[in-house]
Please model this.
Amino acid sequence: MNYDIKIDNAKEEKGTIDLHRLALIADSIRKVSEGALQIRLRGVSLTKGRKKISLKDALKVSLTSIKEGSTVLCLESEKFEKTLEPYQTDLFRLEAQQELPQHTPMTLFIKSFQDAMNENDEQDLLDKPLLRELKQLKNAFLNENETFIISNQNSVPELKLTKNDFKKIKVLEDEIPEPEPVILNGTVESLKYSKLKVQIKTEEGIVDGFLSDKLSSEDIAPFWGKEVTITGTAHFKPRGRSVIEIERVFEAGKGDEYFSKKPKSETVEQQLERQIREKGGNQLAEIMGKWPGDETDEEFEQMLKDL
Model:
């Protein structure tokens, strides 16, 4: 399939592009599309350790030409139904990925930006590492007047990006906590969509998880339907959602039910409220009315730490 990236009001001469800028755009397409595909295959865009799934061929995007009319990069990429091996498509999350074989790396690149800038249910297909990669494309803009227009002859919604759009992406990324270690107690539910997907039933509800590279389906199969304690990493999504990367699983012991709570993420506002409660009083009032001012982000973070 063919795609165009048109740079309106480009700093360069029409029909030309600086090689450094071209490299930044190419790197962003590669990393964003890889993260978007991984989050569909595994539940998170970035995992620890060695990747089991080779995505080299699936993520191939070719530059076929550069046209004038501002600067227009002409790109080509294949659908995943042609590039992913059959065993890889078995990992798709059925509820969200019925159309994935018809996507390409470029459509995932476009969709990731659209999901980040629009408040919709598809934000479940974003996480903090992927949002960080989205922000990196900002470095390819040479001035405030440039607009990147990415299209595919109307077969996918056109994406328009300006440098100002990355502020919204940063806000969304800042609201999501960093991944954190977690211990969880509950009952292993049957796998529904993939041998790598697991659901743990806790007292507070169902927790979605997937097996890390340290484990295989054979490792967890004996525990299906049984009460277990798992250790791993909680990866957070927008709107307080999370998924657990399971690194160890063993039979629950006495007192392990203490760990049966679902991991929760906090918005920036919730973090401030919690810090006020923990330290007593409304110390936040000391800086209310004084910010935003001329402080840098680092100075404001230090003000919060000093509360």
